[in-house]
Amino acid sequence: MTVMDATIQKSDLNKKLTFENSVIEKIAGLVSRNVDGVLSLHGGMMSELADRFSKTTDPTKGIDAEVGEKQVALDMEATIEYGADARQIFDEICSRTQKAIKNYTGLDVVEINLNINDVLTKKEWEQQSTRKKDDIANTVNDDRVE
């Protein structure tokens, strides 16, 4: 009786999961905006200009990500509420961001740099936000008149 070799040859499957920087920036932005004391995250001049013509807030605004195969580094810009503890806000942003990115992507956050670029009371921030919306509406209306 002849015994047949039942060994099954499996082909090796090469797999690689990657993420665009903007995906990581979006996760970090959505998480960070929900931290008490964070009034807003700000981007550079181009981000500010793009927001003037957008009806929605860009969740990646104020965040730059450098994404590797296994690790992420983040640079963030924020305005915080006057009287809030910046160290506590920073610790909360780091904790929540690390956890969210690890849970959603499996990537490790190895560096977070947060630059606090302004401190405002909630009233000042709301007034500024209202003015910006009015300025945008006026700019759009002025462009339509021409």
Structure description:
The protein is an alpha+beta fold and about 150 residues long. It is about 45% helix and about 25% strand. Strands 1, 2, 3 and 4 form a 4-stranded mixed beta sheet that branches. Helix 1 packs across helix 3. The radius of gyration is 22 Å and the shape is elongated.
Q: Which features does this protein show?
A:
single chain, 146 residues
User: First CA to last CA: what distance?
Assistant: 93 Å
User: Could you tell me the strand content as a percent range?
Assistant: 15-25%
**Structure summary, number of beta strands:** 4
Oligomer: single chain
Number of helices: 4
Ranges with pLDDT <50 over ≥5 residues? 44-54
What structural class do the secondary elements suggest?
alpha+beta
Tell me the Rg in angstroms. 22 Å
Could you state the order of secondary-structure elements as H and E? HEHEEHEH
Query: In percent, how helical is the residue content?
Result: 40-55%
Q: Which descriptor suits the 3D outline?
A: elongated
Note the main sheet.
4 strands, mixed
Q: Which whole number gives the mean pLDDT?
A: 82
Write the layout of secondary structure elements.
Blueprint: H1 21-32, E1 38-41, H2 45-52, E2 63-67, E3 71-81, H3 86-105, E4 108-120, H4 122-145
Helix pairs in contact: 1-3
Summarize the structure.
This protein is α+β, with helices and mostly antiparallel strands and 146 residues long. It is built from four helices and four strands.
